[in-house]
Automatic annotation (TrEMBL):
Pfam families from the UniProt entry: N_methyl (PF07963)
Top-level taxon of origin: Bacteria
Organism: Vibrio ostreae
Record NCBIfam families: IV_pilin_GFxxxE (TIGR02532)
TM regions (residue ranges): 21-44
Entry keyword set: Membrane, Transmembrane, Transmembrane helix
Protein name as annotated: Prepilin-type N-terminal cleavage/methylation domain-containing protein
Amino acid sequence: MAIQNVINPFHRGLQRQRGVTLIEMMVASLLGLMALSVTSQVMIKGQAYVAERSQQLLLVQTMSSVMQVLKEDLYQAGFDRGGSVTLLDGGHVIQSGPDAASLGYVYRVAENGEQAYRNVVYRFDREEGVLRLCEKAQPAPLTFLQASDSGWGGNCYSLFEPRQIRVSEFRVMTWRVAGGQATALLTEVRLSARLTRQPQFSHSLSFQLLTRNGK
């Protein structure tokens, strides 16, 4: 009997201790769920931020790539066996359209043949927010209008995915620069675009190019 009197209080204390531990576990579990909920919300917001930043980075990188390709190609404008060549109705090796929203040029890519000349036109469609590249390989230079439409030896295609990027400006300006017996052509190209689904985020780029075989 004495042993039971000693054990029972201990047993009751142990039960009380287990009860407190269970409550602590429940509280800890609740706190854990709350922390998990907060962490999940942070992760969701973080993923949304990463997705948003990736779209912004896509815009910047795509625009930079387009402008770099255009700039490098413009260095070849007018090349023709040591001389210079222009589009049939062009006065300069780099010709800007009447609204300064397009530019065209031509250069020789082969000694002769059906594709000796590459005729190129970059054309901005303001209503659609699209910048198109038209290129045609022909045996001779074309007019600006002939080179700027799809068909007859070449097609036009958008340089940006319209569902992702909308072009807001494409502007071309040219100046003749005379120095002694040489004549050069200074060309400035400006490009502005924005994300289609995040129009508040936009980006602009520009460059100037001096071509020595300008007219």
